[in-house]
Amino acid sequence: MRVLHGPGGSLEVPSYAREGWTGPPGRAAGPLDRRVLTFNQMVERLTKTYDAISHPIRRVMLESLKPESLRVTDLAQPFNVSLAAVSKHIRVLEEAGLISRTKRGREHLLTLDARPLVDAGAWIDTYQHFWEERLDRLEAYLGSYRERR
Questions:
Q1: Are residues 94 and 46 in the same domain?
Q2: What is the separation of C-alpha 36 from the centre of its chain, rounded to a whole number of angstroms?
Q3: Is the pLDDT of residue 39 over 50?
Q4: With 80 as the cut, is the pLDDT of residue 84 above it?
């Protein structure tokens, strides 16, 4: 059993609920099984995306790739870390689907793919109503508190 932790608590993911899962042993996958798989895939994608953007070096790398594609050595140049460390950061970004690599001879050209960030932003947006409601209540409370003083 694998446990995923998030702001709403923890989610236990059974070992059989992984990519390529075809349903519980002994029966074919049904619509609910496919929804569980899709949900699990979404959680995994979001986890990889948030993990990728959690490090400041990777965020700067993404910013550097916004205007144009860059060679690995050009992307590594501003950082005071080894090329091996830069390669590890690039691998995390690739696994999250945030960058893609094209080989041109001996050069590796990296390109930003911001689509996973759209999904991550959409997930965060689901909490917008929650926070707006809380802040509106706080504003009303503070307004009534000021009036009583």
A1: yes
A2: 19
A3: yes
A4: yes
